[in-house]
Write a structure and sequence with these properties.
Length: 136
């Protein structure tokens, strides 16, 4: 696993985490307990902070990245981010499934207990209400 310091920030992670050999944690990244980061996933806190809660599953090929001087990433507890999804500059609340290949863009907020369907694109500034299924 690549753990890289950027701008004086080093990733921090909790207990009982799993990191695949070629996953990357870069910069201002804080992960809770029982987080899994799978093969070729990149969590890149080079331009803004990334905060990820407990029991989060980040599957193969996922990219999580903030927006320069604008939008940090906040991901709650019990979240699963599916294969090859992109989560960029947004807030994901608790108990959310981000489907495979989906893209959640800058300044979005995904409410608790929601599902973002596989392949969905959530445009900038979208608010997905709690308990919703978002597809499209």
């Amino acid at each position: 696993m690549l753990i890289k310091n950027v701008r004086g920030f080093s990733p921090i992670y909790g207990s009982n985490c799993f990191f695949a050999e070629n996953a990357s944690l870069i910069g201002d990244v804080v992960l809770g307990d029982e987080v899994s980061v799978w093969y070729q996933a990149v969590i890149r806190g080079d331009v803004n902070a990334i905060r990820i809660g407990n029991r989060v599953n980040i599957q193969d090929g996922v990219v999580i990245h903030g927006t320069y001087e604008s939008a940090a990433i906040k991901i709650g507890n019990n979240v699963s981010v599916g294969h090859n999804a992109i989560v960029h500059g947004c807030t994901i609340h608790d108990n959310v499934l981000i489907g495979m290949g989906s893209i959640v863009m800058d300044h979005c907020v995904v409410g608790s207990n929601s599902i973002i369907a596989a392949g969905a694109v959530v445009p900038p500034n979208t608010v997905v209400p709690e308990g919703s299924v978002y597809a499209g």
